[in-house]
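Trying the structure run again after the queue cleared.
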Amino acid sequence: MADDHDALPEQRPSLGSLAFNAQPQPLHIAGTQALHPQLFARLAQCESAEQARDTFARHMQLSFGPPPAADDAPGAEPPRWKSSYLRLLQGWGLDANGAAGAALKRWVESRFGLASAFHGVTLAAYPPLERHRYLEQRAGGQFHNHSLWQQLDLLFEFCQWMLARFALMGPGPHVTLWRGSNRLEEQLVSGTLRQRHCVLRLNNLVSFSRSREQAGCFGDWVLQAEVPLVKLLLVPGLINTRSLDGESEVLALGGDYAVEVGYAG
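Done. Tokens:
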């Protein structure tokens, strides 16, 4: 019989598993805070969420350039800044299955090892034309540069810092969120939709709403999930932008979720 010295180290549950959701563990992107020590030193001195948002915005502007221009009119910022994290979030809000969505899903794959399961179509089925479109958008130059990945890394770390410091989504470790959809059948892992309680495999990055009423605008089915705070990338009030605040949208890492489902309306 093996003694304690021979015991195998305890393995962390997979980020996309039900076990992780039940007992979430802190998530950090290695090296991000070490590369930006001044930002987190200044954040530590902030006494309000508003001060922290301003501090983050100033740091991002100084480190990565000015925010993107609203259009290509005379006086607009140089094209290289169109790949800023703000433009990417705005693109997601307009079409999560467009080029911006492909870039964000690729970032999640790179940083967290969660493969994208859906981009306009279910990617597991490997439809040649549609999957080629996803891969083409994922590798496209508009949102494909090292600077953008650093910005998203900082956004995630800042989100986690704000959730811990100012409890933007409550005390945690979970927050109740809702999601509307017309394609839940394709995501079933176990159970049935008519049983109300089932397990769904959500895409590697998904949008949730803060209320059931808001979620019901986006599909015939509404799912309710307990989402770990450590899996949140963007929440209302996190940054100084209105790109997603109008619908109180929350972006979260996906994977398997035990959910309660019902008809919208």
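The chain has one domain: 26-263. Worth checking whether this holds up in the mutant runs.
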